[in-house]
Amino acid sequence: MGKLLAWFRASEGLCRLEEFESVFSRLHPKQTVKWCWKDRIVHHEGGDQGPVVFQWLPTGPSDLDYAKVAAGCVACHGIFSVWGQGESLESCAQSISFSAEQQLQMIDGSWCFRFQTLGHRADANHQMHGDRVEVFRHSLGALVHRKVDVQNPDHTLWLVQDHQRDVLEQPLNTQYRYRLLHHIRPKKPLWNAKQWRHKLSLSRRAFLSTSTLPVERSLSMIHLGMANRHGPEDTMLDPFCGSGGLLLTAAAQGWRVVGGDIQKQLLSNDPKPIPIPPSTERPKRGIEAVCMVDNFMELGLSTPILLPGMDAWNEGAATQYLAANAGKPYRAIITDPPYGRREFLSGKDAWVGEVDCRIRPTTTLDTFTRLLELGTQVLLPNGRLVFHMPVAGPDSKGRISQCTLHDHAIQTSRRLNYRLISWGVEPLNSSLHRVLVVLEKDVGAQAMKSPQSLL
Description:
Rossmann fold, 2 domains, seven-stranded mixed sheet, globular, VC0802-like, 13 helices
């Protein structure tokens, strides 16, 4: 067995690593792993199809254990065993040390050979693929005894050519330009993120709004919040739930969920058409009358506990959130606070109105502090707080800088007894970046203050 590599999407920022750890702790709660990640980051991190990052995995867990974790992650492409690596194709092929017998044991069904180039490459040419295969013909000759299936193989060998650069424009992979990787697939994953991305797709949902988070983002945030989850009795709170995207994703993973939002119309059980264009899966959208709970019912999930007209800024918020959970504290608060934006607030039916897209620095800092204060009242010890915050991009004026928000986060976390677990910055455009913050309530702060202190 070769060393194991995890293949991550760089567009998820550093939170991709924390997500992997969180999913691992959920699927393998009795295993202890000492994580040691390489911290070099590629030059361009934005975009859903952005660059990728390889990370070596610690020894201990089996390859199939890791493969199950990768199947449950949004930002991880998969787990790979390294068969060969080198600065040139020839040296990569010569480095393969597996005997013919070992190769046939690991490739016990059909297989195919695929190619992936990372970063910019000027000489990209599909006609070169055949020449590359020829280089490996001698070292992989035993595989002629296995069926080649290009469409649906049991095993895949990837030849990866790495041209990526880090933030200093230096080659990310300075030792090996080529790697031959064997993709390790889980036999029966308990949770498959790809399948749930399809089931939870926005194009399939009955109810959503223009600010509903993409499915991948919701899944990643829920994963980050579930590291210390103990069982089905644990409850997640979203105090700015909007159209309920995070609630729906958490419920799909077995959480009990409670949500509130100042916009009562979004949480109303009174069905009505939504002003969202139709899709192939929902051709009658904009005509059919729907409400938020329809999303849950169509997936066979338990309906959420909803608090219309209520968010984290309401007077007595902590008391009401605890009451909604039968007086019990929450395992996690996972939310996407409004960036100064409100939808569907005015007009005759309260579904059409002015939209305020301004993001005010004072509002950002106040919201950050308010969420931490709420967590001190309603979170369990070791409970997690996961949320987004907007920060200024290179071309921004008037928005809060990342450094200012980070300093505020450190000071407020210390004052209110939180540990900063992850701080992932994601470029959205040249004027707006977004920080995904993960905090954990310190075990030493187990004594919960009275909820009245938030009044």
